[in-house]
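Technical note accompanying the year-one report. For the benefit of new consortium partners, we illustrate the data format agreed upon in the data management plan: each record pairs a sequence with a structure-token string. No post-processing was applied to the example shown here.
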Amino acid sequence: MRHDIDGGLQMKERRKYSRSFKLAAVKKVVEQGMSGAEVARELGIEGNLIYNWKAKFEREGVLNDLGSVSPEEENKRLRERVRQLETERDILKKATAFFAKEN
């Protein structure tokens, strides 16, 4: 709840999303390997919504076909993610060293 200008309480309006919108968002997590937070940021929605929708679709069995990835594909995706994280780590190390020299 929020306070309006007059000091009274104002209810926050709740947005509704279509089932196809929710499924498309969850597919980005399942099929593209994006994190729920990344997808939420991209779509401009609350991060916990993606996780809630994913759990609901899993309970309904909707994700059974979506989540079937071969071990080779999963390994390839994970190797790429490790490479990306190592690159980010190296950049942060260089930035830390740079700023440490300046002080």
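Partners are asked to follow this layout when depositing records. The longest helix spans residues 71-102.
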